[in-house]
Amino acid sequence: MKFNKNLESIRTYEAGKPIELVVREFGIEAKDVVKLASNENPYGCSTKVQKAVGDILSNMALYPDDSMTKLKNAISSRFDVEVSNVIIGSGSDQVIEFLMHAKANSSSKILVNSVTFAMYEIYAKHVGAKIIKTASQKHDLNEFYDIYKEQKPEIIFLCTPNNPTGDAIDRDELFKFIAKIDSDTLVVVDGAYMEYAIAKDSSKEIVVKELIEQFSNVIYLGTFSKAYGLGGMRVGYGIADAKIIEELYKLRPPFNITTLSLEAASVALIDEEFVQKSITLNFEQMKRYEEFALEQKIDIINSYTNFVTLCLNNNQNSTEISNSLLQKGMIVRNLSGYGMNAIRVTVGTADQNSRFFELLKQCL
Ligand SMILES: *Cc1c(COP(=O)(O)O)cnc(C)c1O
């Protein structure tokens, strides 16, 4: 059977291995498997969210509230924007998919950083668009601008802080850059880890209201999967000029967010205390990774997120090391597919991190 030609060049996205798979494959008990591969919140989610979701478990027969009024109101007041500026997706992934279909086709070009979130490229390929990558590993906005001038891409993706490297773009630089981009080019600012960046360094904070008020061609993406600890609920959002949001709505499947997810995300936004506590613990634990890297003479990228990227030495192979860690029940992300001899490790709880240090030492 013939399929859409666009699919031929797509390598299926490999998500972090689930714990259940390691249990089956290596016969390790689930309690001995540690997953530090997908940047989930190791402290779970707010107990207020758990209670709220429990309270509505008896209401599963009806379709969800497709207007999503409760969550949209919560997001609009959190960011001080209008409800018409907000779209909610099944993860911010789905918003990326919408905007790709809204803006690009097989004659489009999409500009991304050389090392960045893999889904931009996959969604670009769905519509047959051409991906153009920078050479620099860190977002170099001068390079982005030079390529933009020459290639005139339909969409530019800026991921700040960036996954899988953890570095972040300065707010002032980002605003100056976008000001030079013509208003028909869509600029996507993916802030999946922004809550962490703001806590570490206020010069990295992108104030969403300012961003969308200054620029009608920008969409900001956020997610409940990371700092809010709701990866299992699949909720993300896009915030932009109402004209952009209106177009994205044409692509949205009905009832794309479940009743449970809508409730979970709405309540999660109210419990700021849980998020702030997770972030504080994250950076406390991250110091241990920095010390460990120094001690082991491994390079670590300064991270504004809940993960660290360890750039291994020439005599260490990230594929071999992540495989041996896996056999010991430690799931991390091998970055060889990004052309890096590095592993990305989610900063876990104190116990999980101690275990990681112990196991990695055995592998080095
Ligand atoms: C995790 C992540 C997302 C989206 O995650 P969802 O779970 O789909 O909301 C988007 N961008 C980056 C850079 C991420 O790391």
Brief write-up:
The protein has 364 residues and is α/β, with parallel strands linked by helices. It has helices spanning 19-26, 47-55, 69-79, 92-103, 119-126, 141-151, 171-179, 194-200, 208-214, 242-249, 259-270, 272-296, 318-327, 350-363; strands at 34-35, 86-89, 109-112, 130-133, 155-159, 186-190, 218-223, 236-240, 299-300, 307-311, 330-331, 333-334, 342-346.
Fold topology:
Elements (H helix, E strand, L loop, with lengths): L18 H8 L7 E2 L11 H9 L13 H11 L6 E4 L2 H12 L5 E4 L6 H8 L3 E4 L7 H11 L3 E5 L11 H9 L6 E5 L3 H7 L7 H7 L3 E6 L12 E5 L1 H8 L9 H12 L1 H25 L2 E2 L6 E5 L6 H10 L2 E2 L1 E2 L7 E5 L3 H14 L1
Parallel strand pairs: 1-11, 3-4, 3-5, 5-6, 6-7
Antiparallel strand pairs: 2-8, 7-8, 9-10, 10-13, 12-13
This protein binds pyridoxal-5'-phosphate.
The site of pyridoxal-5'-phosphate has 13 residues, from α4.
Keywords: Amino-acid biosynthesis, Aminotransferase, Histidine biosynthesis, Pyridoxal phosphate, Transferase
InterPro entries: Aminotrans_II_pyridoxalP_BS (IPR001917), Aminotransferase_I/II_large (IPR004839), HisP_aminotrans (IPR005861), HistidinolP_aminotransfase (IPR050106), PyrdxlP-dep_Trfase (IPR015424), PyrdxlP-dep_Trfase_major (IPR015421), PyrdxlP-dep_Trfase_small (IPR015422)
Cofactor: pyridoxal 5'-phosphate
- Helical content, roughly? 40-55%
**Secondary structure tally: strands:** 13
The secondary structure category is alpha/beta
Number of domains: 2
Roughly what is the average pLDDT, rounded to an integer?
96
Main β-sheet: number of strands, strand sense, barrel status?
Answer: 7 strands, mixed
Q: What are the distinct ligands in this entry?
A: pyridoxal-5'-phosphate
Q: Report, as a whole number of angstroms, the end-to-end distance.
A: 47 Å
Strand order of the largest sheet: 2-8-7-6-5-3-4
One letter per element, helices H and strands E, the order comes to HEHHEHEHEHEHEHHEEHHHEEHEEEH
Strand coverage percent: 5-15%
The CATH superfamily of the largest domain appears as: Type I PLP-dependent aspartate aminotransferase-like (Major domain)
Structure annotation, total helices: 14
Q: Note poorly predicted spans.
A: none
